[in-house]
Amino acid sequence: MSTTISPGFCRPLRAQAAAGVVLAVCLALTGCTGSPTPPVPGETTASTNGNASPGATGSPGAGNSAPAPDAGGGIPDLVANLSPSVVTIFTKGGGLGSGVVYSEDGLILTNEHVIRGNTTVEVGFADGQRVAGTVRATDPVTDLALVQAKRTGLPKPAYQTTLPRVGEGALVLGSPLGFENTATAGIISGLHRSIPGSASNSLSLVDLIQTDAPISPGNSGGAVINMRGEIIGISEAYIPPSAGAVSLGFAIPAATAVEVAEELLADGTAEHAYLGLTPSQLTPQIADQLGIDTTTGVVVLSVDEDGPAGRAGIRPGDVLESMEGVELNAPEKLLTELRNRNPGDTVGFKVRRDNQTLDIKADLTDRPTQ
Description:
The chain is α+β, with helices and mostly antiparallel strands and 370 residues long. The protein contains seven helices and 22 strands.
């Protein structure tokens, strides 16, 4: 059963309608422009008056951190304080997404899919100013990117490097469907989520935060914030109502985003453990074709003979049952486990081949550039 996923970045609305946005697995990238649709009940647009301008006094260079939110002021104060730290990113052809200030000197953190195919963008701020931006570095594996905007004195928000608790309040800021400076609210619904069926399309839709705060096209790359005014996630994707979903949104944990951003700042790349195979869901039909008596595991479709899996002796048609004792019940679970490993680590697999169980160890390497 496939799951429809909508990316946080969008093409123009007309292009979406022409191409269709419901695919077997479609990333919900939130960057849209075009004629906006009527506001969805429950979404409120953040003020763009003096309370939403950069810095403590509303002028560039007034400070290098966002004003501390007043817990007693609730969501309105959080929106007023954090809106200057959330931007809109405009790309060629009418694409649109969101981003979050990463440093006071104009560095913006966003999704890789928001700026994909672009070297320059335009960055819009809550006070209405728009400036040129240059794509500085990208990491498609985690779907994160850094953009250098030509503006300084920006209010950098606090990034929480520990996971939030399920049930905590969550506020999403971004530009859904071109409605800039929009705020939606909900709670953290789950942690360590992987979107079923996504492994064949993206390596990024694993180990995510789930929230019921509405996320729509255009929110991608924007901020998910806790009630203390800390960034806890970067909006990534949602499952649309057409798939039978109700308020299923997903975000990259802030801890992951910060780790990757620092690696990108260091040398323009981020390290990721590489196994060198193509995984797929093991179905009863595939198990029958392979002549094995198990329906739990990840089937190997192909292997890079020069990669860690190939050198370790893993073959196409093998079924990976577990990795370091962790049951692999879906390709997304394998990607999640690999995300938690480093190049140079040695990992052990339980492998089913012709109804025999093999113990195979593979030495992970850094993911090739291509």
